[in-house]
Design brief:
- The complex is a heterodimer.
- Among the domains of chain A are: about 25-315, 3-Layer(aba) Sandwich (Rossmann fold), CATH 3.40.50.11540; about 380-440, no CATH class.
- Chain A is about 35% helix and about 15% strand.
- Chain A has helices at about 25, 130-140, 155-160, 180-190, 190-205, 220-230, 250-260, 280-290, 320-325, 380-385, 395-400, 405-410, 420-425, 430-485, 490-510, and strands spanning about 30-35, 40-45, 55, 60, 65-70, 80, 85-95, 100-110, 165-170, 210-215, 235-240, 275, 295-300, 310-315, 335-340, 345-350, 360-365.
- In chain A, the strands form four sheets. Chain A has a six-stranded mixed sheet with strand order 1-14-13-17-15-16, with helices on both faces.
- The longest helix of chain A is centred in the last third of the chain and has 55 residues, at about 430-485.
- By secondary structure, chain B is mainly alpha-helical.
- Chain B folds into two domains: about 15-175, no CATH class; about 180-335, no CATH class.
- In chain B, about 60% of the residues lie in helices and about 0% in strands.
- Chain B contains 18 helices and no strands.
- Chain B has helices at about 15-25, 30-40, 40-65, 70-75, 75-90, 95-110, 125-135, 135-140, 155-165, 175-180, 185-190, 195-200, 215-230, 235-255, 265-270, 275-280, 290-310, 320-335.
- The longest helix of chain B has 23 residues, at about 40-65.
- The termini of chain B are far apart.
- In chain B, about 50% of the residues are buried.
- Classes of the chains: A alpha/beta, B mainly alpha.
- The interface between A and B is large, with 71 and 42 residues.
Chain lengths: ~500, ~350
């Protein structure tokens, strides 16, 4: 254990798993800087929220770091060109986000010059900015949470700033097997990480920052300790946590280091914490100190399906196929391509998907997980034993099969973080996490259906009310007329009789 | 390159149901050997007959329900049921009694409730209770454990097989000549006839703690049980609960009145206590599901075993205790739901 990084295990996490790390292969070499590709494919959605809107025309020449798609006030993040070149198209392209679907992307033919925009106007000393402007500034950098959730960082800060806060927690836990991009980033760019921490603290006026790293990353801890020694900032503390998956989950990490539970449906800011991934902090520093928006990231290319696993610093928009080639290409045994880690990643059918802000890992596996060897649940409870949220997955599974929405809510389906621990220990090999994802989608659908039904009912009731009102109005008018007739004097009666007689005559006229 | 699509996680699960069931069967081997040693080869015959009928029942029900026979048989759960039945039955049991128990366990208690995972009652115990009530005469024919008694005729393999298949004992042996009361029987009726426990302990049926022979079977069962706990196939809550639920009331009663109450040691090493704690009550399907629930479930079984032995009309109460607590499982599960992280730690709000 390195100096200044005591193991910090104040809060106790329920369950979790000690998984084989599988990180050795990709951490044996320094980060490789990937070359500029011939073509960049930049999806308009690389974040949580609304798609960014293109602000460049087809055929337009763009420079590295130039804004190519912007957000307009809504939740989202702008997109920047990762290198210089010409905008070739805005067209649908396969992406990893959604299975088998395409998403609109800006395609840039690179000219290989890698010419950057002029940063002199962008660069300012962040300490001279007030927190509000600094947050606005961060928004322009297109920075999103690089741990995988890709929530727009600036908006996370803006939301958190409305609450009383105590800690900035930098998440360097990286607990999922195979992934080592944060580990390598902390080793090689520790100064950027702690620099970014200072910027983020300024943006939130936070008094304390905890940089949290899992105990199996001694090199990263040493590098961070060194970087912290250089800046001598007493507000920033380095903490070490035990190696247990999924302690890097945002809520889990908060619980682990502060012993505070993030309330169900709430955010860490509800308990005074803001969690940022170490990669995000480095990206913030890169933007603030060097004027480079989020146009590249460190991605791990690993698994027994690639020849020589490594970490690459890759420009966003480079295809997965190209960075797999940097890792020596596929081995003969490559069978499964996963974007993300083995626990929470997404499998893709093609390697033509681009590396995006969320792509922390490209995992190529030789083994296909078996499907269809599922057996009935025997209620052994192993899943409940490992669930970090202390759910009863065996019960949720039951209610999910019965589509019992009330029970699903009661048993906390929406609290499930989809970490996949229950799948791994299930002796019946039930794909619980996938089942829960589907059940959640179904629950959202039901909620939508309910909302639609409510609207329809409201319309119907509205219509009934209107008809009723009309009837009431007619009735009251009729009653008024009747009343008037009943109280009418002799003159009125004579008049009525006269009218009736007159009508009788005209009838006769018509008959003849 | 093109790849196949799968859902996360992309890691193959470690254990499997067949592996678990197989380990349970392996863990029963020491107890089985001890059983054969003390009560003769009848156990093996019972095991084979129970296994055959359990497998046949499983296969028949699966094909009637239009499901894979192979998938059900390959999970070994029917074999665990068969093994538990063989342990519950006396070594000398006519084949049709065993067959009835096996078929009831698999066909009624298991498949008519929806098959593995859906049965609310422990199949082996349901099957056992049916024959216990239906064929009391045959279920009371316990032989003496082999302890080298010179005046007792231990049946040979041939004689055992002949009795099992035809119900005929050797000509020179009467039913009563080989039938012995079980230690639990002897203690229960002895205490009720106002004999003291100390007096009864000198009875040749009794060993150091429980019944002679029986206590050794208990030891060997505990070895297998401890292994299951170490391997985490069985979590400690249920065995601990069963033993505590039985031994605490037994200890308290014995402490205050050791003359008319059997000692906790006797309860522990008699009848099906240890088998129940580690192998029967631990059937996850019919047990409570949360850790706290399992502790309560175990304690309930233990206490019911004590209550039946002490105040009931049956000498042992394992099967009834398990079935009664099976019925309580939905309530236990409801009341012991662990608090979800991030939810208020208050008691559940009243509706």
């Amino acid at each position: 254990m390195s100096e200044g990084a005591p193991t910090y295990d104040l809060g106790k996490l329920h369950g979790g798993l000690r998984l084989p790390a599988e990180k050795q292969a990709s951490t044996s070499r320094p980060i490789l800087i990937a070359p500029v590709p011939a073509q960049l494919v930049l999806p308009l959605v690389q974040h949580v929220g609304q798609a960014a809107e293109p602000v460049v025309g087809i055929g337009e020449r763009v420079l590295r770091g130039q804004l190519v798609a912007d957000t307009h006030g809504s939740l989202g993040a702008p997109v920047h060109a990762s290198s210089s070149g010409r905008v070739a198209a805005v067209e649908p392209w396969p992406v990893a986000r959604r299975h088998g679907q395409t998403a609109p992307c800006i395609v840039i033919e690179c000219d290989g010059l890698d010419q950057a925009i002029d940063t002199t106007e962008i660069l300012v000393d962040y300490r001279e900015l007030d927190p509000v402007s600094l947050r606005q500034k961060i928004l322009q950098g297109g920075i999103v949470g690089l741990g995988g959730a890709v929530f727009p960082t600036a908006q996370k800060l803006m939301q958190a700033a409305t609450l009383p806060l105590e800690y900035l927690i930098l998440n360097g836990v990286e607990c999922e097997p195979y992934i080592s991009c944060d580990d390598m980033l902390m080793r090689e760019y520790a100064a950027d990480v702690v620099g970014g921490a200072q910027v983020l603290m300024h943006a939130l006026e936070l008094p304390k920052c905890l940089v949290v790293v899992e105990s199996d990353k001694p090199a990263a801890i040493a590098a961070l300790a060194h970087a912290l020694g250089d800046i001598q900032d007493p507000r920033v503390t380095l903490k070490q946590v035990p190696t247990i998956y999924p302690s890097g989950g945002e809520d889990q990490l908060v619980q682990l280091v502060t012993n505070r539970e993030v309330p169900s449906g709430g955010l860490p800011s509800d308990v005074g914490c803001v969690v940022q991934n170490v990669g995000t902090a480095a990206a913030v520093q890169n933007w603030i100190a060097r004027g480079e928006p989020l146009i590249s990231r460190v991605t791990t290319v690993t698994g027994d399906g690639v020849a020589s696993p490594l970490n690459v610093l890759v420009r966003l928009g480079t295809t997965v196929a190209e960075i797999v080639a940097l890792a020596g290409g596929y081995t003969e045994r490559a069978q499964q391509l996963v974007i993300g880690g083995p626990m929470t990643g997404k499998s893709v059918t093609t390697d033509l998907v681009p590396v995006v802000k969320a792509t922390n890992c490209v995992l190529v596996l030789s083994e296909l997980p078996a499907v269809g060897d599922e057996r009935p649940c025997i209620r052994c409870g192993e899943c409940a034993e490992v669930c970090p949220v202390q759910l009863l997955p065996q019960q949720i599974y039951w209610h999910a099969r019965a589509d019992n929405e009330r029970k699903l809510r009661e048993f906390g389906l929406t609290d499930c973080i989809e970490c996949g621990c229950c799948d791994l220990v299930c002796p019946s090999h039930i794909p619980l996490t996938a089942d829960f994802r589907r059940a959640k989608a179904r629950m959202r659908e039901l909620a939508d259906e309910k909302a639609r039904a409510r609207r329809a009912r409201e319309r119907f009731e509205h219509r009934n009310q209107r008809l009723q009102d009309e009837r009431d109005k007619r009735d009251s008018e009729l009653a008024a007329r009747k009343d008037a007739a009943r109280n009418a004097g002799p003159d009125a009666i004579a008049e009525i009789l006269d009218r009736a007689r007159h009508r009788g005559e005209s009838d006769k006229d018509e008959d003849s | 390159m093109e790849f196949e699509r799968r859902d996360a996680p992309f890691v193959t699960p470690s254990g499997s149901v067949p592996d678990m069931m197989r380990e349970v069967l392996y863990a029963l081997i020491p107890a089985g050997l001890a059983y054969v040693w003390y009560f003769g080869p009848g156990f093996i015959l019972n095991l084979l007959i129970a296994a055959a009928f359990c497998a046949a029942g499983e296969a028949a029900m699966q094909s009637l329900r239009g499901r894979s026979v192979e998938a059900a048989l390959s999970d070994y759960s029917a074999m665990v049921t068969a093994a538990l039945l063989a342990f519950a039955l006396p070594a000398l049991t006519p084949w049709w009694v065993t067959a009835t128990a096996a078929l009831f366990a698999i066909v009624v208690a298991k498949h008519l409730y929806g098959g593995l995972g859906f049965n609310i009652f422990n199949p082996a115990m349901a099957g056992y209770v049916v024959v216990l009530i239906a064929f009391p005469l045959h279920m009371n024919l316990w032989t003496a454990p082999r302890m080298g008694d010179i005046d007792y005729h231990y049946l040979t393999f041939y004689e055992t097989a002949r009795y099992t298949l035809t119900g005929a004992l050797p000509d020179y042996l009467a039913f009563d000549a080989i039938s012995r009361a079980t230690p639990l029987d002897a203690i229960q009726s002895g205490l009720r006839n106002l004999r003291t426990f100390d007096e009864l302990r000198s009875y040749p049926l009794l060993g150091d703690f429980g019944g002679r022979g029986w206590e050794w079977i208990g030891n060997f069962t505990a070895i297998g049980g401890a292994w299951l706990v170490l391997r985490k196939i069985v979590r400690w809550q249920i065995p601990f609960g069963v033993l505590a639920g039985l031994l605490i009331p037994a200890g308290v009663m014995y402490f205050f009145d050791s003359a008319t109450h059997a000692s906790p040691g006797f309860h522990l090493f008699s009848g099906g206590t240890i088998l129940c704690a580690f192998f029967i009550a631990t059937d996850p399907v019919s047990a409570a599901t949360s850790n706290r629930g399992r502790l309560i479930y175990g304690l309930g079984i233990g206490f019911l075993i004590y209550a039946i032995r002490r105040w009931g009309s049956y000498a042992d109460g394992v099967a009834f205790a398990v079935l009664l607590m099976n019925m309580a499982v939905p309530a236990i599960d409801y009341l012991t739901k662990p608090p979800i992280v991030g939810h208020p730690r208050k008691r559940r709000e009243t509706r």
